[in-house]
Task: inverse folding
C-alpha cells in the first residue's frame, strides 16, 4: 500500500501508483476509484483482456442508465463520442475510473495532468498512440462515498485535454 503524505490530486495518486507498480515489476495494473462506483469483484473480468494479450488498456464501461446522474450521462456521452472519434474505435465510457493497463501502456503513456484530467489524458494519448483499447461492461453504481469531482473546474480541465486532439475530432483518427 502506498500512502501519499499530502493530497496532490487524483492524477498524481494514479501516476505514483502506476510508477510503483512498474518498479515492482507488474505486467498488469488495475486502477479503480475509491468512491464505491466500481465493484472490486469485477477486477478479474476487467483484467482478462490484458492478461490474454488482447488489449493494452481495458475500460470498465458503465451503462448510461438512470442510476447515473443526468449531468454525468450527458458529459459521459460527449466524452465517449469524442474519444471514439479520436481513436477510431468505439469507446462507450471515457470517464470510467475502473481500468486495467498492460505494462506496455503504463510505460508508453505518461500524462502531465495531475487531477481528474489524468484519466482523460491517459485514454486519449493511448488512443492516439494506437494502443489496443477495449471495454468490458461493468455495473453502474452511484451509491457509496460522494465523488470529489468539482463540476466546472474539472470539466474545464478535461475539455482542455480534448482540445489537443482537435484535428482528430474534426477529421477522424485515420
Result:
Amino acid at each position: 500500500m502506498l500512502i501519499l503524505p499530502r493530497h496532490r490530486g487524483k492524477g498524481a495518486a494514479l501516476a505514483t501508483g502506476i510508477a510503483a507498480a512498474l518498479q515492482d515489476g507488474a505486467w498488469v495494473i488495475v486502477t479503480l476509484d475509491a468512491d464505491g462506483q466500481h465493484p472490486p469483484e469485477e477486477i478479474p473480468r476487467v483484467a482478462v483482456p490484458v492478461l490474454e494479450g488482447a488489449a493494452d488498456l481495458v475500460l470498465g464501461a458503465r451503462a448510461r442508465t438512470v442510476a447515473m446522474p443526468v449531468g454525468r450521462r450527458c458529459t459521459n456521452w460527449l466524452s465517449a463520442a469524442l474519444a471514439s472519434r479520436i481513436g477510431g474505435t468505439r469507446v462507450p465510457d471515457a470517464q470510467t475510473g475502473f481500468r486495467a493497463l498492460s505494462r506496455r501502456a503504463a510505460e508508453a503513456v505518461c500524462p502531465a495532468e495531475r487531477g481528474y484530467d489524468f484519466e482523460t489524458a491517459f485514454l486519449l494519448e493511448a488512443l492516439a498512440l494506437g494502443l489496443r483499447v477495449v471495454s468490458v461492461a461493468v455495473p453502474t453504481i452511484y451509491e457509496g462515498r460522494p465523488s470529489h469531482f468539482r463540476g466546472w473546474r474539472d470539466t474545464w480541465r478535461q475539455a482542455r485535454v480534448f482540445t489537443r486532439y482537435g484535428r482528430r475530432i474534426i477529421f477522424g483518427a485515420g
Q: What stands out?
A: The CA atoms of residues 64 and 70 lie 9 Å apart. The helical segments are 10-23, 43-51, 70-87, 103-108, 117-128, 151-163, 166-171. The chain has a mean pLDDT of 87. DSSP finds seven helices and four strands in the chain.
